[in-house]
Description:
With 73 residues, this protein is α+β, with helices and mostly antiparallel strands.
Amino acid sequence: MKQLLSTNNMADLAFAQALLQGEGIAVFEMDVNMSVLEGGIGIFPRRLMVVEADYDAAAKTLRDNGLDVDEHP
């Protein structure tokens, strides 16, 4: 899996997931349960992961819709 997006903005996460699901790209959200450790204040970012084969298409979809994509080699 490859990291596509890391943010603590829940609106961006929901938008990104909806876009990717609409394109048929499976996405997995990591660090969802970190809120238990942080007390629910939202300081730890959540990460959206995709399989490497889908990364380029997923990144293009997000960029085309105005979202920043994490660039990791």
